[in-house]
């Protein structure tokens, strides 16, 4: 099978290594192709090599990397999807499986013209493993690889074919979700990262410098856990407001992290081995640190993560005061140039939303 990975960061390196180790023909599209290794390696926390790729070919030319591919994995952050589309528009063959990893962030709408061309757009609920790049495109540390992956296609009629192709390529059991909205509403980074950043930087004003910052996960506090659970509860209310769509894949974080309350969730998040050492996204300035608003934790998870959830809530008439508070803080602090809007893609009311995600009618 001819497989392409777009992006040589954390998950791009993981996918290139796993796919090529299994004998897949792997091409990797990167803006830094000379830094990508033909034999990327994945290690555990102690540095022991767990997986080693073979004969990965890297390109900065989209056509050379993507033309003729049977399966394409995109690992670029959601805020770069529009630029990515400009680069690969019309290159993919019809019936190519194109998978966003992960599937949240609105990519299914940004790429809707590729869907109309017959490309099988799909997304993965969560990444196959937690990963941290040590050397770009060459070496990454990983946690436990998931035993199951969950996938949904933008057109539900294509989901089983997408699952089959991904399972064949990665050798990981891949199960279908009923529709793509299950991925859009997955309570992962769009509320996980945003709640934590809000609690760390909520008092930030331009000109303020922090002498030190907590580790992102290991120092997770009760306020962050409380805010996260409240956002998760609001998201579950959005799910309940759409009974005509099967959203069984939108599992609450209490269940996902096996935590009954904020105390248990705080303990869980602060003790996950694969999260150790992850820094709060910040830039070093004279006298300390300031938030790094260019980090994908900010630039992707707020305007293309949390904003999608809030737009869905607005279309369904669901009140989400905590999510609104967190997003309004971000807008005031970061002043984003662009943010996701359903209306930009022709989804202007609840009926449009249900029609697109339930019946896959492409709206113009």
Description:
This protein is α/β, with parallel strands linked by helices and 364 residues long. Helix content is 38%, strand content 16%. The protein has helices at 10-21, 62-66, 81-88, 107-110, 112-116, 159-170, 181-184, 189-201, 222-240, 253-256, 262-271, 296-299, 302-316, 321-334, 350-359; strands at 2-6, 25-29, 41-43, 49-52, 57-59, 71-74, 97-100, 120-124, 131-135, 139-142, 148-153, 173-176, 282-285, 288-291. The strands form three sheets. The protein has an eight-stranded mixed β-sheet with strand order 5-2-1-6-7-8-11-12. Strands 4-3-10-9 form a four-stranded mixed β-sheet, with helices on one face. It has a two-stranded antiparallel ribbon with strand order 13-14. α8 runs antiparallel to α9, α9 (222-240) crosses α11 and α13 packs antiparallel against α14. The model is unreliable at 360-364 (pLDDT under 50).
Write the layout of secondary structure elements.
Layout: E1 2-6, H1 10-21, E2 25-29, E3 41-43, E4 49-52, E5 57-59, H2 62-66, E6 71-74, H3 81-88, E7 97-100, H4 107-110, H5 112-116, E8 120-124, E9 131-135, E10 139-142, E11 148-153, H6 159-170, E12 173-176, H7 181-184, H8 189-201, H9 222-240, H10 253-256, H11 262-271, E13 282-285, E14 288-291, H12 296-299, H13 302-316, H14 321-334, H15 350-359
Parallel strand pairs: 1-2, 1-6, 2-5, 3-10, 6-7, 7-8, 11-12
Antiparallel strand pairs: 3-4, 8-11, 9-10, 13-14
């Amino acid at each position: 099978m001819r497989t392409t990975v777009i992006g040589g960061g954390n998950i791009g390196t993981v996918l290139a290594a796993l796919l090529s180790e299994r004998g897949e023909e792997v091409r990797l599209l990167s803006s830094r192709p000379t830094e990508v290794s033909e034999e990327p390696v994945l290690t555990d926390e102690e540095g022991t090599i767990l997986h080693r790729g073979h004969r990965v070919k890297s390109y900065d030319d989209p056509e050379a990397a993507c033309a003729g591919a049977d399966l394409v994995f995109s690992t670029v952050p959601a805020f770069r999807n529009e630029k990515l589309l400009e680069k690969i528009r019309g290159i993919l063959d019809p019936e190519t499986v194109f998978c966003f990893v992960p599937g949240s962030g609105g990519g299914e709408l940004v790429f809707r013209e590729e869907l109309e061309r017959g490309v099988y757009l799909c997304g993965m609920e969560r990444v196959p493993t937690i990963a941290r790049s040590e050397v770009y495109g060459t070496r990454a540390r990983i946690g436990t690889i998931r035993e199951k992956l969950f996938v949904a296609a933008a057109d539900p009629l294509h989901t089983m074919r997408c699952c089959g192709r991904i399972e064949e390529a990665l050798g990981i059991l891949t199960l279908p979700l009923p529709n793509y909205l299950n991925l859009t509403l997955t309570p992962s980074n769009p509320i996980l990262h945003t709640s934590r950043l809000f609690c760390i930087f909520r008092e930030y004003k331009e000109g303020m410098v922090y002498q030190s910052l907590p580790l992102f996960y290991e120092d997770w506090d009760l306020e962050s856990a409380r805010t996260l659970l409240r956002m998760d509860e609001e998201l579950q209310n959005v799910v309940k407001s759409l009974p005509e769509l099967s959203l069984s894949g939108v599992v609450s974080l209490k269940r996902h992290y096996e935590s009954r309350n904020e105390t248990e969730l705080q303990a869980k998040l602060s003790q996950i081995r694969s999260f150790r050492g992850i820094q709060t996204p910040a830039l070093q300035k004279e006298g300390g640190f300031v938030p790094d608003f260019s980090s994908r934790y900010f630039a992707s998870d707020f305007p293309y993560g949390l904003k999608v959830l809030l737009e869905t809530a607005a279309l369904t008439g669901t009140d989400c005061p905590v999510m609104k508070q967190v997003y309004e803080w971000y807008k005031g602090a970061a002043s984003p140039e662009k943010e996701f809007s359903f209306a930009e893609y022709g989804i202007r009311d609840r009926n449009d939303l249900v029609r697109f995600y339930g019946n896959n009618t492409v709206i113009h």
